[in-house]
Amino acid sequence: MLKLRFNDNRQDPVWVVEKNFTIGSADDNSLVINDASVSPQHAKLTGARQTFVLKDLGSAEGTSVNGSAINQHAVACHDVLKFGDVEITIVDPASEAQDYEWSLIANSRFLSGQEFPLRMGESGSVVIGRGKRCDIAFPGTHLSKEHARFTISPEGLHVVDLDTDNGIFVNDERVEEAVLRAGDKVRLDVYSFRVFGPGIDLPRSATAKPAVSAPTPRDDEPTVIPKQWVTRPTSPGNRSEMEEETRKPPVLIYAFSALMIALLIGLSAYVFL
Question: Is the backbone of residue 62 left (phi > 0), alpha (psi -120 to 50) or beta?
Answer without folding.
Answer: left
